[in-house]
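S., here's the first fold you wanted:
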Amino acid sequence: TTVESGRLSSDDGEAELDYYFVPSHGEYSELAQTTVIYNHGNYAGIELYQPRVRFLHEAGYNVLVWDYRGYGKSQPETAPSPEQFLSDARQMRGHANTLVPDSSKIIVYANSLGGVPAVEMALSESPCALMLEAPFTSMSRVSGSNSATSFPESFFSQNHFDNVSKLEAYAGA
């Protein structure tokens, strides 16, 4: 299997997003056309999540994994604004259509913080499946569980990262 590495220039021209596309090994013909876009957690970059990528590949899927701004080899090394983070997710979802064998067979998968870009991807272009593992729910729920005081979502992000509400809209679509 030849892994394709690439860099995608962000729509705002301020970032280069690092990604890898791992084609299916083809042993399971029923999965060879299906691609999993993997949105990783908050800790480190793609390199930390290689066991998950390998598991998905060995199961027979094509896998697209990418690093957010400020993670891994993506540039710049600074964290994106909420608007940039969500825009990058939508752009990577669109770019996936140019890489995969069948754009109607895309599964968007996320772990932890990856739930934020995954939900944004699903809202921008509906996948055949959305899988969220220990997803990031919202800034207000995170702040409430990690501090003595609870702050509303708007205190942190103007509701950019309220996946609970976004998922309600996605389910109703």
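And the second, which I think is the more interesting of the pair:
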Amino acid sequence: MSSQTICSGTAPTNGYVYIRINQGASGKYLLIKNVTNGMEVTIDTSRGSGYCATYMPIPKGHQYQIQTNCTGTVDICRFFYAQGEQ
């Protein structure tokens, strides 16, 4: 199965992006990429935990993109502000 971009955006302030997908199958992955500087965080479902979740800090003004080959339901996909940021 090919990957798909399921979310992208620009951080309105310093914070982090969090995503969780219900996905029990093995061989699936979830990737958050900071498009601005090329850094990536990825996780796979090889352990069969029932879900795939990860987060990544994103500085203000940086673009991010979330890609996956999971077919499960997205429980949450959200940008959280860093403490003290508005």
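Why I say that: The chain has a mean pLDDT of 86. The radius of gyration is 13 Å.

Talk tomorrow,
H.
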